[in-house]
Fold each of these.
Amino acid sequence: MSPRELVVLGTSSQVPTRTRNHNGYLLRWDAEGFLFDPGEGTQRQMLRAGVPAGDVTRLFITHFHGDHCLGVPGVVQRMSLDRVPHPVHAHFPAEGAEFFERLRHASSFHDVVDVRPHPVTGPGVLAEGPFGRLEARRLDHSLPAYGYRLVEPDGRTMLPERLAARGIRGREIRHLRPPVLDEVSVPRRGQRFAFVMDTRLCDGVFELADGADLLVIESTYLHVDEALAVEHGHLTARQAARVAAECGVRTLVLTHFSQRYTDPALFHAEAAEVFGGDVVVAADLDRVPLPKRRAAHA
């Protein structure tokens, strides 16, 4: 299985800059590859990051502004060129289904990839599988928009010394049931990932971020420009940090920066004033691992 990590493909809002590509984020989660908001140039960024098109198993679009979706044609066509053998499930706001179809078939190509659209019609569970549970929540932007959340089921961590004391080993472990299981293991909280893009503060933002081990969230503006953030349906770095602090987030990843700012350190400083956990100011081609699980206690 691949390590659980976020591969940052692009971090700019609205337009690319000399140092920042349009949005694009790949979450590696065991055997899954979840591609979020592929903006223009994502195919090339995947090449630079060493991410084959075949790694993508699900595609997520928060809304249909160009910096969040103009990379779809290139990525899909590359999947066909590489003859990706598995289905690719696509999640996007149902109100933008026409846009998705246009992007999916933006030009002529030998179409052999199995893209399966799943328009999101409201908040709730989108899918469940070995990866856990995928959820969506409405956001507050100028277009219909959703954020996404991945929740791994809780499990248990085995305690080797207790297993040894009972003479339990090998395949016997998988057949354990309470009360013996409770005596040789401790609860293990499943990991959680949240992805929040263009939005004002709203209930959906906090619901998505609740208890996240890794929160990827837009911070288009700094606090000095909060009025602009509200006007255009965005967040500031301080607001994003407030969400992380109130929701018990472990690692906060700030991204989707306005081209008006040239010093990334300002975003880190602003967020760190509010949030005491790990703060990452994302840069193109960064790799951000999910935090290690909290130590289990007997």
Amino acid sequence: MSSVEEFRAEIRAWLADHLVGEFAELRGRGGPGREHEAFEGRLAWERHMAAHGWTCVGWPVEHGGRGASLEEQIAFHEEYALADAPARVNHIGEQLLGPTLIAFGTEEQKQRFLPPIVAVEELWCQGYSEPDAGSDLANVRTRGVLSPDGSQWVVDGQKIWTSLAHEAQWCFVVARTEPGSRRHAGLSYLLVPLDGPGVEVRPIVQLTGTSEFNEVFFDGARTDASHVVGEPGDGWRIAMATLGFERGVSTLGQQVGFRREWDALAELARKNGGIADPLIRDRLVRAWIDLEAMAASARRGVDPSVGKLHWAAWHRGLGELAMDVCGAASTVAAGEPYELDDWQRLFLFSRADTIYAGSDEIQKNIVAERLLGLPKEARV
């Protein structure tokens, strides 16, 4: 048995032994559009994982991880999804900020922030998008200035679509710290506490009736002067590196979740007679073929922007197909005042798939300009 197969068997056995009792009730809970589900229970589960060494498996051992290889990380995420384990609450800290600090942070920052991420003692959110700078991140207007004594950054501005900010204690914020700078220049990557004065978090009610996105307002919020990752003014490079980590290996577990959704939808079509419709049958088959292609591309290491375009369109299409399989019942809420079933929630939330984490339009520009070398889009 290879080391990867041994690793896969180890995590599979551990999940089977520990997703029991109170944790068994968490199976399948949480995830996009459902982050409100059993949040405290999922937090307790993830701290249980941490106590047994199953968080941050891909991090170097010296930073609290297992030093797992790429193949072992793939195995971990696949087995976690196959076990129907609950959606992670610490994804942003573990998969985004942690690798960014390991690559670019100071030793002081690593010692301060990495252990609480491993232990799931501090949760993080991502302060990138703004009302006038959604996918156009270089247009941010949130400002950061050093206090007169140089000991703190003072932050003023607004961020929007900030996932799980209402549950997080910290936010990594892209802010303009050089007055008069434009576009990519003059930005800094600041680590800002959310539990101090000058910070207000306002949940945004979504189509699903839930609120996992937020507006975050900074009005004289403060953070230590040492809480800048990289050099002041180098924030664009650091922010782009974080986006690379965001679209990394953990998305392979997502493929397993997609397969589970397809399987459930195909079974529903068999039960309610939708499979008798040749158009429904054809769309189900096409979705299955596209899912297989998506998985093969992910294993080959397809560029993250290409992968994002692929899975976002596929998942949104699956939501539309689900409504057609459900038929007229899909137009009626399951209960008062606005209770949705899983298929309705999938349809509504998947409308955002082609927007969040980099809109389709931005991803296509990246593919065209950076991968294909086409002329850059004219910008004012």
